[in-house]
Amino acid sequence: MAWEAVADLDQLEEGDMMLVDMGEPICVVRLYEDEAVAVHNTCTHQQQPLNEGYLQEDDSLICPAHNSRFDLHSGIPTGVPAVDPIPVYACKIEDGAIWVDVEQQLNDAAIPHKPFH
Ligand code: FES
Prior knowledge:
- The protein is an all-beta fold.
- It contains no helices and ten strands.
- The chain has a single domain (4-105), classed as Rieske [2Fe-2S] iron-sulphur domain (Rieske Iron-sulfur Protein, 3-layer Sandwich), CATH 2.102.10.10.
- The strands form two sheets. A six-stranded antiparallel beta sheet has the order 1-10-9-4-3-2, with no helix packed on it.
- The protein is globular, with a radius of gyration of 13 Å.
- It comes from Actinomycetospora endophytica.
């Protein structure tokens, strides 16, 4: 797999996020008009889905289960209880769509376990 269009721009407005199945569950977040990010959808604390979390103004995402906070550019947890980073993937906006390449992981985070539910 390489670059894959996961959404038209009009499907995902600024501040919105969506879950995409790319073999791994991927959370795509449109941060700004011209910027989107893609991270693994699984919280590294107790494997809950991050796409139901809360986007913050500093481009971090808070897990809805126990409030772990992850920087969406680096994947690094910036708020406990999570201590391990989430994988971050190559993501771009081009030709009116959001593209993700899950073969291009941008950090060295381990792939989290899939959600148990
Ligand atoms: S599962 Fe995300 S903070 Fe616990």
